[in-house]
Amino acid sequence: MCLWPDAVEKLLGDKEALPNLTPTWDKRYLALDGGRARFAEKKLPLGAVYLLGERAMDERAPRIENISPREALLELVQNTYMNALLTKEQRAAELNY
Question: CB–CB of 38/32 below 8 Å?
Fold first, then answer.
């Protein structure tokens, strides 16, 4: 899985916790080989999607907040791969998968 350093920091507490994908790009690599993470062995229904926010150091943290379906769709689309290259039809097919 490819992650930006800020996502690595939110997940693991240190943006340097994962290796760079390449020496010339700041994106990080999380192997899904069973070491730190792995894929599920079979297809399962999606129960929830969590969007990671800024790390908070108050007594309410961590917390889960609902967002509107519109906000959720915009967040998902902004965080998908190759946004500039997909047509409307390809985007619809991607989200319908």
Answer: yes
Locate all alpha helices (DSSP H) within 1-97, ordered by sequence.
5-12, 69-78, 88-96
Question: Which tens digit of pLDDT belongs to each residue from 3-42?
Answer: 999 999 998 999 999 999 889 989 999 998 888 888 888 8
Residues 4 and 25 sit within 8 Å (Cβ to Cβ): no
Q: State which residues form the domain around 78.
A: 67-97
Instruction: Residue 65: name the closest of 55, 47, 50, 76 by CA.
Output: 50
| 55 and 81 housed in the same domain | no
Residue 10: closest CA among 25, 28, 22: 28
Q: Are residues 92 and 73 in the same domain?
A: yes
pTM of the model: 0.51
Q: Please tell me the number of Cα atoms within 13 Å of 75 on its side-chain side.
A: 12
